[in-house]
Amino acid sequence: MKPQRTSKAAVESFRDFTASALFCPRCRAPQPVRDRLLLVLPDGELWEYLCVSCGASLGTRRVRSEGRTLLH
Ligand SMILES: [Zn+2]
How far apart are the CA of 66 and the centre of ligand 1, in A? Predict the structure, then answer.
């Protein structure tokens, strides 16, 4: 089982999410991560999380721009 935190609240303040550490399979240890804006989607943003030690991609997170202006 993966250590996975369920986001119960809406991810509006996505910048607060960066504080956590993720398990890095390459380092075989939990590592602090830094986020990188990967893509800007029509309905949100796609962030990538990189291990600060080896730079491996530890996952992506899609942040939906809820409550913000939606342009179609
Ligand atoms: Zn690593």
Answer: 32
